[in-house]
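My current task is to audit a protein record that another person submitted. I need someone to confirm that the token line plausibly describes how this chain folds. Take the sequence as given and treat only the tokens as open to question. This is what I was given:
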Amino acid sequence: MSVTGEKIDKVCIVGGTAKSEVWCQMQADMYSSKVETLRVPDAALVGAAIFAGLGIGLFSDIYEAVTKMVHAEKEYSPVAENVRVYNELYDIYCKAYCAFEEFGVNDAISEFQAKESKIE
């Protein structure tokens, strides 16, 4: 996540993926950042409730609404050794992607997928 130069303190994972502790830990390791699951993992439901509360004047602004309605359930911290491994794998992936791009493999895959998606 440091590619943009922005410092990210934590990532909130919502939805079905938040139910898997293994997946949440993997995300913390891949992002090299703390990952939180939320008490109510359905982001659409919470978002709708936040805007409904704003609409009826229950909250003065969105920051107050989020502070009062969005609560962490569990936090996952990155494991240094796993971060090292994921960084090394990401470097390998980038090299492979560039090599595929250089030799037209990415375009060939896209063309194949487009052709095969038309077969019934």
Summary: Residues 80-102 form the longest helix (23 residues). The radius of gyration is 20 Å. The longest strand covers residues 34-38.
